[in-house]
Amino acid sequence: MKEKGVRELPKVELHLHLEGAAPPAFIRGLAAEKKEDISGIFDEQGGYAWRDFWHFLKVYEAATSVLRSPEDYHRLTLAVLEESAASGVVYGETFLSPDFCGGRDPGAWREYLHAIREAADQAERQMGITLRGIVTCIRHFGPEKARETAICAAETAGDWLVGFGIAGDETVGAPKDFAWSFDCAREAGLRLTAHAGEWGGPESVRAALTDLNPERIGHGVRAIEDLALVDELAERGTVLEVCPGSNVSLGLYRDFRAHPIAELDRRGVKVTISTDDPPFFHTTMAREYQELHRAFDWDEGQFGRIARQSLDAAFCDADTKARIAKLLEG
Ligand code: ADE
Ligand code: ZN
What we know:
Elements: H1 3-8, E1 11-17, H2 24-33, H3 53-64, H4 70-86, E2 89-96, H5 106-127, E3 130-138, H6 143-155, E4 161-167, H7 179-187, E5 191-196, H8 202-212, E6 216-219, H9 227-236, E7 239-242, H10 244-249, H11 261-266, E8 270-273, H12 285-296, H13 300-313, H14 318-329
Parallel strand pairs: 1-2, 2-3, 3-4, 4-5, 5-6, 6-7, 7-8
GO molecular function: deaminase activity; hydrolase activity, acting on carbon-nitrogen (but not peptide) bonds, in cyclic amidines; metal ion binding
Cofactor: Zn(2+)
Protein name: Adenosine deaminase
């Protein structure tokens, strides 16, 4: 498959952190406008500089610290969607954090969400890409803050804000500490996803399934270390939001060939393909496709099947799905 051909395949991306997708030049520009020195988070080539997962989270939060108004998020959303559309993404879901958007104040959160949604509507008109939002609480910020986050999410649940989840450091705390937040979001009609099985092993995926009962798992790839769990995921129809380039970049796997996505797929688990935090991991959706083609010889048929599987697992309404399905059919 040619580079150009890969770019043009219509793609569905379910796992993208909005701040994590911020082009470094955009963050540098915003810091300059605000006369803030965050030069320590960039390398000599101008990309984000981090050493390991925990340092990555710190750099992520430092980059995010210059985003301080709804207007900043409006600009960010447009910049991010421009990159996604250039990679052939026709439908995406993005993680949004009231922690960063107004410090979990419900009134401020509404203003941030309004600005993000306006930018998404503009991008849909101008670039033909559709976006929906998923609020995420952040595990290492603790369950108290997660409750406030869930309340923000519940108050703004609807046709655009469609899901709730948890991200952050999976080695801190336990899923059951966040059960109240997940119940609150579920009762408000939000669909659920939880990061697990990235820095935690199969037991972390089991705990998320048991205590939070999400439809989708963010990453989940380390389930491969327990084949009974893999069978269970396949039987339950739990969808994995797999981000191979992120996992390779963070050092979970040596390279794409060593990544378990193809094995999980062969064993009947519903896998999808996403970038997580693309500029941090020097990736794009087009690059993910290219690398998967190289590693596993995945072709247009396989990518088409996974795009359709991703759309089936999307949290948007049926009318939106039907519209996007036509784009996937070509
Ligand atoms: N937040 C942003 N990227 C993340 C990742 N890969 N794992 C957990 N939390 C995150
Ligand atoms: Zn993630």
